[in-house]
Predict the structure.
Amino acid sequence: MDTISTSNSAVSPDPAALPRIAVLATGGTIAGSAADAAQTAGYQAGVVGVDRLLAAVPALANMANIEAEQVASIDSKDLELSLWTVLARRIGELASRADIDGIVVTHGTDTLEETAYLLHLTVKTSKPIVMTAAMRPSSALSADGPLNLLGAVTVAATREAWGRGVLVAFNNRIHSARDIVKTSTYAVDAFQSPEVGALGWVQDGRVEFQRSVVRPHTAATPFVADAGWPGVEIVASYAGATRTAVDALIAAGVRGIVVAGTGNGSVHATVQAALAEAVRQGIAVVRASRVGSGHVMRNGAAPDDALGFVTAGTLNPYKARVLLMLALAVGMGERTLLQRAFDTY
């Protein structure tokens, strides 16, 4: 890990008085580049190294002493589960150091919400872990990555961020990893927390939290990122849906299926019959919703209790998959235990 120090002012603060923040880079659009500065699509993600990302934000020298490490250089759409294990372990190692006050992770936006929730449930520390990203590559006019990175380091360096689990600093707002979802394909305010809203905001060196994180996280969970990754897949319900995908997953031997249902997680009758067969064969089935906000409530005796389904609550299908994998990995395969996990975390 390299120590990055820059100074652009004769009145810079004493470095010894600044917090020490580790920045772990994984690639993504924030590290993307295109030949044309006017190009915000069709660029190559993950090609700009962490040293260049930091050099583009000289104001960081006034916020923290930075340790930089390139963990990966990928487009986050191609993220493999093995990287989750590597990232969680490295964050744990850094968090255990007395001289590290917080950790920032730069990531691609495509799967940021999944990685953030995974870390939120598995990393055992009260120190701030703040993720950030960008919607425009570093080469673009008005690239949003530098300001997002400055905001993330600012949040990680503040004592008020301790004990809140994994946070996401993006477009001046601070979100909880459990709540945040990507809601736009192009806008710089692409991340939102539907239903509950942001935790707070960061601007010009000031951080303010306006609500707390209620559900257990980090050290208060039984989950780990190195207990293996049980096979869990996602299927969707829609007009005219068939049971082809579910039957294929049963044959493949998956351990869990999350269904992205319509409305309140409702499932086409044909797909529901196939999912009921999956439960009979020992596969965990979780009902989530393809709708962008709201929650999936249990339907009591019909169909959840009768068919053995678990409901995802406010988790979207992709985060529900993360929690289902983690729960299965630690032996929470029984339906009442799984439902309790979804009701709790």
In short: Residues 2 and 68 are 5 Å apart (CA to CA).
